[in-house]
Amino acid sequence: MAEAWLIVGLGNPGPRYELTRHNVGQMVVDELAERRGESFRAHKANARVAETWLRPGSAKLILAKPNTYMNVSGGPVAGLAKFYGIDADRIVVVHDELDIPFDTIKLKSGGGHGGHNGVRDVAKALGSPDFARVRVGIGRPPGRQDPADWVLDPFGASERANLPVLLADAADAVELVVGEGLLAAQQKHHAPRV
User: Fold this and answer.
1) Which residues have a Cβ under 8 Å from the Cβ of 121 and sit 6 or more positions away?
2) pTM above 0.90, yes or no
3) 113 a catalytic residue
4) What assembly does the database describe for this protein (predicted)?
5) Binding site as annotated, residues
6) Known binding site for tRNA: residues?
7) Looking at the domain assignment, is residue 34 inside a domain?
8) Rounded to whole angstroms, how far apart are CA atoms 59 and 54?
9) What b-and-e string marks burial along 144-179, b requiring 16 or more CB atoms within 10 Å of the CB?
10) Could you tell me which residue, 57 or 54, shows the higher pLDDT?
11) Which of 22, 43, 116, 189 is an active site residue?
12) In a domain, 194, yes or no
């Protein structure tokens, strides 16, 4: 049987944050579940989980959304990893990224957290930074708006028009990481668009 992968969408809980830039990671995980006709259920690790497959008979996917606020996402992620027996190298964390323009996806494994408190907390709780990250660009705020306020705002009208494509691209990237590896996913998603 193929090994299981834990795919975590970072965000904040509750309707107030549901459609904000900071929750784009959870939106991507929702897209992955929707493609497979799966719904989320409560898990004792303080997360909502949907168990599914990349494709029938292939790698098992544990899609997860922590019930905690972004900055303390690590506990649920570590709890799920322990529950399912999944090592850091088979965890994909999907999150928003200020330093990447909107409508752009970058992938990496390991390294620093780049100031992202959710990623920092996951690495601390796992005791390792060696998990894959699908970094979904939300861009920096215009003018002098505080980045902390920007990430907690809903996407603007022009962004909302392109959001379905961005979520689909990010979900494709997750599937490629699991199915063909990080390098294949980087080669596809880091290439300039034609």
Assistant:
1) 71, 72, 73, 74
2) yes
3) no
4) Monomer.
5) 17, 69, 71, 117
6) 17, 69, 71, 117
7) yes
8) 5
9) eeeeeebbbeebeeeeeeebeebbebbbbbbbbbbe
10) 54
11) 22
12) no
Predicted pLDDT at 16:
93
| Domains contained in the chain, number | 1
Confidence (pLDDT) at 56: 85
Residue 3 pLDDT class (50, 70, 90 cuts): confident
pLDDT number for residue 2: 63
Which amino acid, residue 127? G
Q: Which residues contact 28 (CB under 8 A, 6 or more apart)?
A: 9, 94, 134, 136, 167, 170, 171, 174
The CATH number assigned to the domain holding 176 equals 3.40.50.1470
Residue 20 scores a pLDDT above 60: yes
Amino acid at 164: P
Print the domain residue range for 105: 4-189
The answer to whether residue 154 is domain-embedded is: yes
Asked, for residue 85, whether it belongs to a domain, the answer is: yes
